[in-house]
Write a structure and sequence with these properties.
Blueprint: E1 3-4, H1 7-22, H2 42-47, E2 48-50, H3 60-73, H4 76-79, H5 81-86, H6 90-93, E3 114-115, E4 130-131, E5 134-135, H7 153-164, H8 172-184, E6 195-197, H9 200-219, H10 223-243, H11 248-269, H12 275-295, H13 304-311
Antiparallel strand pairs: 1-4, 2-6, 3-5
Length: about 325
Amino acid sequence: MGRRRPRTVQLAVAFALLGIAAAPAADAPLRAQRWLAPQADVVRVLTTAPTECLSPQPDPHARLSVEIGRAAFRTPTVLGGQAARAGVACETCHRSGRSNPDFLFPGVSGPPGSADVTSSLFSSHRGDGIDDPVPIPDLSGPRAGLKVAPADLPPFIHGLVTQEFDGPEPPPAVLAGLIDYVRALSPTACPRAGAEPVTVKALMSDARRALAAADALAARGDRPAAGVMIAAARARLGLIDERYAALRGDRHRLRAADTRLAGIAQALREDRPDARENLARWSADSMKLEAALTRREARSLFDPNHLAAAAGHRLPRQPS
């Protein structure tokens, strides 16, 4: 059974969370480090990611919906409220759609890899004042782990966004995409490799995939959903940006690219005819940006040695 957390403690934790969101700790060069358990292998966790178990979609409409959901799953904007301010997205707890055994969030987790889904910290709707964290399920694992029947998935995900996290009502295409993305995760689609490196190339690919979905949505006049996809692309740029903090020239290029995306998002909101053309141009130009960043990737916090030094951790000595 859970224990009731006093309201004063809830507020204290909430204010602490706002502090976490506002300013990084001196020993946390990457925001994701702030919600890792103290005993976690920080360098391994932050330089690798679980492989994604995503079933292929032969139907173009289903494929687009899954791509929309995949981008939204990785976007803090979708959850809104405290979660968005802290940089928390669905993928924070479910890395690559899997679980996260190293997750430990102040006021939300119990043991590592758990979360209180009725925490007042994130939700004014479902917060019950009781400290009862549960293990984070692997969405790519057996459906019994999720404990949600397939028919109940739409109301479950809608409630998770709008009530569990107090997020805004998502555009219908984004909500449908999230549902289709979770449905497309399957243990039968897991690659043999259990993990893959976190790289500039992977994050830039995510950004371009999100923008391709944005273009398809804009083509059918769904500007709100297209805007969420641009926010998804900008979030991926942000993850690259924090790893290039010591490389001022590269950071300037990244922020210029982000400013361009913000302008495209504004053009979409205003229904300007050049918005889609600028989307295509940004995606083409991003290949040059990716190449420039990749040339200096070994000097950034994508490199395990640089990350270890910045995070105050030692890499294990390799056998001679």
